Amino acid sequence: MKHYTRENFQPTQSVGFHLNRARNSLLMEMDAALRPLDITGQQMGILMSLKSGSVGTPLEISRALSIDTGLMTRMLDKLENKGLLQRHRSDEDRRVVHLILTDKGRTVACNIPEIAPQVLNHRLRHFSSDELRELLRLLQKFADGE
């Protein structure tokens, strides 16, 4: 089914526009809430991924968070400069870089769950549980392209 045509397409009425607008407003709110931790919403994803142990290299994080490698490198530089993570070259393969949270990075990552849910809950305050489940289902379907 074609929802958009040359005749009816209006950028500010498109699903892409609304997804981008929702993402930007959520990131602005998250960035403001995380300011006391001296991190951004995007940096939060990196720290939480490392804390969970589900990823360990820049490429793994890039894939998990859908962040291009150039932006990933810049964000890792900032986190490293803040003393939140360290890069270590693999002994087996010098091309591979492992990322390790510092003590400070672990402390920051442990504080994120005190902040992030408040931002999300505020944004979702007018949604029922069923609506949230449906929103997540539809976003997943859209992201998967199915």
From TrEMBL:
PROSITE patterns to which the protein is assigned, alphabetical: HTH_MARR_2
Keyword Transcription: yes
Keywords assigned: DNA-binding, Transcription, Transcription regulation
One matching Pfam family: MarR
Record has Transcription regulation as a keyword: yes
Entry's Gene Ontology molecular function annotations: DNA binding; DNA-binding transcription factor activity
Domain HTH marR-type: 12-144
Name of the molecule in the record: DNA-binding MarR family transcriptional regulator
Organism, scientific name: Cupriavidus agavae
